[in-house]
Design brief:
It is a single chain. With 227 residues, the protein is α+β, with helices and mostly antiparallel strands. The chain has helices at residues 54-65, 70-77, 81-102, 150-163, 178-188; strands at 16-22, 27-32, 38-40, 110-120, 122-134, 140-146, 171-173, 203-204, 211-212, 216-218. The chain contains 5 helices and 10 strands. Strands 6-5-4-7-10 form a 5-stranded mixed sheet. It has a 3-stranded antiparallel sheet with strand order 1-2-3, with no helix packed on it. α4 runs parallel beside α5 (178-188). The longest helix is centred in the middle third of the chain and has 22 residues, at 81-102.
Length: 227
């Protein structure tokens, strides 16, 4: 894989030939007709330099994706804990790179932002996840990790803003943390408009039982497609 090759990164040129196959998974070792470079078909993929069978590596990735712990994944897939940890880091980095490349110019009208508490390895290593989710599809737009403070919310909102096609016409639903109200006008460049009435996602009040709206920020009253 030669970044200086004139065919680098271009599909459908038929410049690659199979020089040999190797390993129990019969991995193809390729050669470029243009520059003569040779490399494994797994180069720059999540499976590059994986020592265990591909089927087991896939099972490890599925368990990790479902939130199974390192120890639990090791037990369920009959894989050494160190291998599970190494694959988890590789799969995570690959997924992050793919997300960064593909998740751009999103057409979203309503976003939900919230934080959840957890820990890493031991309960003494506490950590928070701040998440931005498309309210309609439940697609995760952005995740930021760190102490629950204004900096965490700031990073979440700025990273999310960059992924939106029309951030100036957005309804933001939060848990009411003051950081959202403070940062929303700064990052999105418009005024904060308080909610008027509940239309969906409402919750009953403790005393009356009537519906009250969840904390909401409206970035503008612009209607797309109208002058």
């Amino acid at each position: 894989m030669n970044s200086k090759c004139e065919s680098y990164g271009q599909a459908g040129l038929e410049n690659l030939i199979v020089r040999k196959v190797y390993g129990q998974d019969q991995i193809r070792y390729l050669r470029c007709r243009c520059c003569g470079a040779e490399f494994s078909e797994r180069k720059n993929t999540a499976f590059w330099n994986t020592k265990i069978p591909e089927s087991r590596a896939i099972e490890v990735s599925r368990q990790i994706a479902e939130g199974t712990s390192i120890k639990g994944t090791s037990r369920l897939t009959y894989t050494h804990r160190a291998t599970v940890k190494r694959l988890s880091l590789k799969f995570g980095q690959h997924a992050q790179d793919f997300h960064e490349q593909e998740v751009q110019q999103l057409d979203i009208d309503v976003l939900e932002m919230d934080e959840r508490h957890g820990y890493v390895a031991i309960k003494q290593q506490q950590c928070w996840d701040a998440v931005a989710i498309d309210a309609a599809s439940k697609f995760i737009v952005q995740v930021e990790v760190g102490p629950r403070n204004t900096n965490l919310i700031d990073r979440l909102m700025r990273a999310t803003h960059k992924r939106l096609a029309h951030p100036q016409d957005l309804v933001l639903m939060t848990d009411g943390d003051a950081s959202y109200r403070t940062l929303f006008p700064i990052i999105f460049g418009v005024s904060y408009l308080p909610p008027v009435r509940a239309t969906w996602g409402a919750r009953p009040t403790q005393n009356t039982g009537f519906l009250e709206p969840l904390p909401t920020s409206k970035s503008s009253n612009i209607v797309r497609g109208k002058s």
